[in-house]
Amino acid sequence: MCQVSSTEPQGITYYWGADIDGAEPDTLWGLEGYTHAVGFFMGHPSSEIFKHEMQLVDDDKLLRHVQGLASPDYDLKHYDHAGGWFTRDDDPDKCSTDSHVAVCHFFCQKQKRDEVIKILCNFADETKKLQSSGGAVQSCGVLKECNDMTLVTLWLRYVYSCSPQA
Question: Residue 129 falls within a domain, yes or no?
Fold first, then answer.
């Protein structure tokens, strides 16, 4: 999936993952970032590589209820980057394919959303400061949903280690 995402016009950030805690074993999580909002729409679903990959999804009947791009099994969110960061320049594993991701959705009253964003952006800033000494957090992004004015999402990507030192 990352190889496909990396070919998209104006794409700059892409992470894909599967659920490992068993709650949603058939769910794929993805985050694709673009230099401009038009990047998602500019040729994204009409590109040959996208059509090819979606055909594989349809051929294998991977969507739970209905196959195809109009399927209700897709739960796409459209976000603006509100703060935080997605890649540390000093992260030796920034292109890791086995990082773990926690996605935390915060729902609030519309008039409180800016306050929630500020709190999460402060958290992201403090988290990045802690990583300067070689921490495990690789991304700590704050995303505000463009269509749902009550939703803010925290994207946290990290290196997971089972060793006692972690």
Answer: yes
